[in-house]
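User: What would this chain look like folded?
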Amino acid sequence: MNAPVLVINCGSSSIKYALIDSDPEAPRLAGLAERLGSPDARLKGNNSAGESFTQPLPDADHTQALNAILERMEGRVPSAVGHRIVHGGEHFTQAALIDDSVINAIETTAALAPLHNPANLAGVAATQSVFPTLPQVAVFDTAFHQTMPPRAYRYALPESLYAEHGIRRYGFHGTSHAFVSQRAGELSTRGAGGWLTAHLGNGCSTSAVCNNQSQDTSMGLTPLEGLVMGTRSGDVDPGLHAHLHRQLGWSLDKIDNVLNKESGLLGLSGLTNDMREIEEAAEQGHPTAQLAMEVFCYRIAKSLAALSCALPQLDGVIFTGGIGENSPVVRRNVLALLPHFGFALDVSANETTIRGKEGCLDSAGHQGPQVWVIPTDEEGRIAMETRHCLEARV
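Assistant: Here's the prediction, encoded as structure tokens.
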């Protein structure tokens, strides 16, 4: 399949898109339709020459936004559409050609991702109306982690909650962890081996990957479990919900909102969820910004150390995502908390890593576990899985 794949990541009021050629060096048409359904709706993106544009789309819905995106394709016709679907439950271990049975299966997992799966399905419906003859493929955030063994994905809860209701750890950011671990295997002399991956952005997760298969990950039933994130708390005492309800009279909805939207870096710092601003404030001596940095980095290191138990060998750690790729301070602080793992960070290389560039940050001659920065490419991974899904049917 040589024609480009249109990758769609649809939210409740947005559509992120990218038109990706089979040639990785080919320029991408990419952008974001945002604030859909409002007078301020707009389409932002770039053309094949790398020039940016902004197009007002007042009150546009998803279908109207997709038609506007289609007009920005510069005459290039996609061969297929690959959709990011957040939660596939246990139904999907790989990408799937979308038909009625697949849509029904995604709908059954909506309770596990009520903010994401319905929006993802709305994107599928809108895309099918605009591209009725193109094959549509669902690529799931959770599918990569379906190789986890029961000891990693089961909660210590009554069996019936798992057997009847699917309550277990699923993990997310699967396309990112899959991409960077496979890329490390291609770049490093260690091969596929055993890698710890840290996807650090506004959402954050870690994973243990051996021979390109996920063995464990930090996120669980929902994307709230695990690391401290931009506005998400990550791990808290499970008794916190009952405590806040009894002591403060908070409803479950309020508690859920606080843990997802008012916590994390934002909650700790009281300033912002933007790591760049927190780093700047911390450097200026702001105490809560310094605390946010310390907690954030400590929890990442703690998670990586725990996940190392899932690997038969440790070949290295990979930093990715907006923070992982662009914050030498976070990388340095995390690795400083793991001295017993034998990492040897080249401080100069760490400080001068160019945004968007991949590379090994080891000191010269180091023979222990390696340190890599690899920019993630979730859209590229979705396009690749879409192609593989369709080629397997031929």
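The first strand starts at residue 5 and ends at 10. If you want, I can go into more detail on any region.
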